[in-house]
Amino acid sequence: MDNFVVSARKYRPLGFDEVVGQEHITTTLKNAIDNNKLAQALLFCGPRGVGKTTCARIVARLINGFEEKAEVNSLNIFELDAASNNSVEDIRSLIDQVRYPPQFGKFKVYIIDEVHMLSNAAFNAFLKTLEEPPPYAIFILATTEKHKVIPTILSRCQIFDFNRIQVSDIAKQLKKIADREGIQAEEEALHLIAQKADGALRDGLSIFDLMVTFSSSNKVTFSDVLNNLHILDYDYYFKMVDGLLAENTSGPLLLLDEILRKGFDGQNFITGLGEHLRNLLVSQDARTVNLMEVPDNIKQKYLTQAQAASPSLLLSWLNIASTCDINYKASRNQRLLVELALMKMAYVNSALKVNSNSSSEAGLKKKLN
CA 13 to CA 285: how far, in whole Å? Predict the structure, then answer.
């Protein structure tokens, strides 16, 4: 049996053109290399799984003119995990290696992951070398927490801020990989995986591998993703809002009971409902429709439902959902808290009408007096 290689490794980008969602970074690095203006100390910052280490390896290969997957890469690239090698001795050992020029190529590249984990003493020992490295040494520091890197290190580096990858970009990349692997994947399923990845392509690829392994028919379906990732279907939120618009508490309360009996957490539900209401609100203006990160067929459902609710009603509902979310952890009866929020939402429209009528009557009396 062949050894299985996870998608995150199998499809790791080998060139800047393959890096997803970081065009502002890859364009700058490519131009710097082409024009021989690459700084000797670079700091790559950003969330996990967005391509920091990948870009560092690509830089190391390109500046040395190595072919893709060349075996001599390992002789020019030194990777250090600062999370487990964070002492002064570890940095001194690295500094000793820097003194020797490369055996192959022009540059030795030192990639230090999670650099914020270095101790203050290690940072201080590293300062002089980072400020005045030999001409053949390039340092690429990577971190998920830039604020923990001491200012003296930041001042010596050219800083590149990596973005969270957009849901649409992750979904497109997953689609490409599914096509290459001959896997039938529903668009809604890939979009849901991309949402669950929360901006990290590596997480998205890991979830994708999990879904492929789960399926015995080489298919990735929306229902399988919902069940495996324990995510509430969009339909629950559409049904919930329909019940609230009908000003009927029975329907929403029974639907909540069904959701809780399926093992879903009350806070996850109220958070998801808040996101649903936010999507309905942005659906009411053609300029903000694209702010929704949902598949096209789901987007059409939002556009239809948004026509039945006024902006003031949606804002009132959002306020109630937000208050419920904030108070959820401190509540002793969390189910009742969510039920109370739903009952308030069901009668908000009536309350708004009463207030409007009261204001009109008060204004009329004032005029008559």
Answer: 38
**CATH code of the domain containing 21:** 3.40.50.300
Does residue 197 sit in the same domain as residue 312? no
Residue 69 confidence (pLDDT): 60
Which pLDDT value is given to residue 320? 93
> For residues 72 and 104, is the Cβ–Cβ distance under 8 A?
yes
Q: Side by side, which strands form the sheet with 108-113? A: 77-81, 108-113, 137-143, 41-45, 158-161
pLDDT digits (tens, 9 = 90+) for 325-338: 999 999 899 999 99
Q: Phi and psi (nearest 5°) for 233?
A: -65, 150
| Pairwise pLDDT comparison (186 vs 217), residue with the higher score | 186
For residue 286, CA distances in Å to 283, 298, 301 come to 7, 16, 15
Residues 12 and 157 in one domain: yes
140 with 13, same domain: the answer is yes
- What gap in Å lies between CA 201 and CA 207, rounded to an integer? 10
The reply to whether 19 and 120 lie within a common domain is: yes
Q: Residue 238 — very low, low, confident or very high, per pLDDT cuts 50/70/90? A: very high
Q: What is the pTM of this model?
A: 0.76
Q: Say whether both 185 and 315 belong to one domain.
A: no
Q: How many CB atoms lie within 10 A of CB 109?
A: 24
Tally of domains within the chain: 3
For residue 53, the one-letter residue type is T
Would you state the pLDDT for residue 253? 92
CA pair distance 245, 314, nearest whole angstrom: 10
Look at residue 30 and tell me if it is in a domain.
yes
Residue 150: per-residue pLDDT: 86
Task: For residues 11 and 154, state if they share a domain.
Answer: yes
Say if residue 114's pLDDT is above 90.
Answer: no
pLDDT at 86 over 80: no
Residue 179: give the domain boundaries. Answer: 167-229
Choosing from 120, 142, 161, the residue where a domain stops is 161
DSSP 347-368: THHHHHHHHHHHHHHHHHHHHH
